Amino acid sequence: MFEINWPVLAGVIVLLNVISFALVGRDKAKSVARSERVPEVYFFFLAVFFASAGVFLGLFAFRHKTNKIYFPLGIGLLLLQQLCLLYFAYLLLM
Question: Is 1 part of a structural domain of the chain?
């Protein structure tokens, strides 16, 4: 049947989350400096591709975009959905 290389998949997901966390921090720094910002759609784009944990942690670590209710709620729901998806994929394929 179909084999998944779990260590490689985990490595890619961790790398995406580190990049997304750093991007939130960079956007916060640009926000404070009042320079050109990262468009909000980039955060949601990364979050859809299993980087929601990095974006979610970045929101609260840098205290960035937490006043906009759709950010913590939307990213949190994406994170929950992705954790469930990974759990069921693991159960199905193991």
Answer: no
Domain-located, residue 62: yes
Please indicate, yes or no, if residue 47 is contained in any of the structural domains: yes
Domain count, the chain: 1
CA distance 9 to 76: 21
For residue 76, being part of any structural domain is answered with yes
> What residues make up the domain containing 17?
12-93
pTM of the entire structure?
Answer: 0.86
CA distance 24 to 54: 9
Q: Provide the residue count of the chain.
A: 94
Chain segment 46-63, per-residue pLDDT in tens: 999 999 999 999 999 998
- Encode the chain in three state secondary structure: CCCCCHHHHHHHHHHHHHHHHHHHHHHHHHHHHCCCCCCHHHHHHHHHHHHHHHHHHHHHHCCCCCCCCHHHHHHHHHHHHHHHHHHHHHHHHC
